[in-house]
Amino acid sequence: MERRSTRRLTTVQLDRHARTLELVEERGTVAIDELVEKFGISAMTVHRDLDVLERLGLLRKIRGGAVRNDVGQVRAFTLGGEASWNERARAALREKQAIAARAAVRIRRDMTVFVDDSTSCLPLVPYLARVPGITVVTNSLSLTRVAGAAGIGVVMVGGTYRAELDANAGPLAHDATSRLRSDIVFMSSPAVHEGGCYHPDQDSILVKRAAIAGARERILLADSSKFTRVAPYAFAALDDFDLVVTDSATPAAACQKHLPVQKFAVVDVAKGDGRGDG
Does 131 reside within a domain? Predict the structure, then answer.
């Protein structure tokens, strides 16, 4: 099978995606012709942009344009209260996409990849879809839908379905995850503080701990907003990960104090590059 390129999204693409989502969220719909005129790009390029955003579950393509993906309006618990799944997924979208692009260089063909229920991991889907033989294991219903639609083989971890997380969690999910072995795990953390990763939900940390324990390689995706938060339940230390990928707005000391330089990478969203671990 021919392997497709895992070319990263450029800064221009990231900006276009974010501005497209702003239009869709504001009006509920957007036309391809409008995007062609607004961004000065071809209709083919607009279609490619919308394909990426649809695979991430952030909008739905229709004939001649795109509309909000209201199917994804699942209520989800966050540190700031309640927000819809789409609101969480759109938060810091450019940072999440750039971080995912940097993390995706670790993906190899025929891997078994555990991806947790964090919206920070959703931008990995286009990169996973380009690599032959990938099997994704996840407890996230959102990611199962998006990855399945992208043609990726998905194994969903069972457990107690939590509507506010749109994922399976709790002791059953922990037990199922603890029986699995993966080549690599990608996950995020709602809060990173003083070298530790924290979560507001006790059931969720059970799955995260089991996924970390069963993975050969562990990657944390955490945009700068995560380093400004606290939560009650610890599930890992930063040093438990083989690579921590963040953006340039994260204070340097937040990583340097707790990790050797080869274990973290910093993505400059403004420049579209990554620094740190090669």
Answer: yes
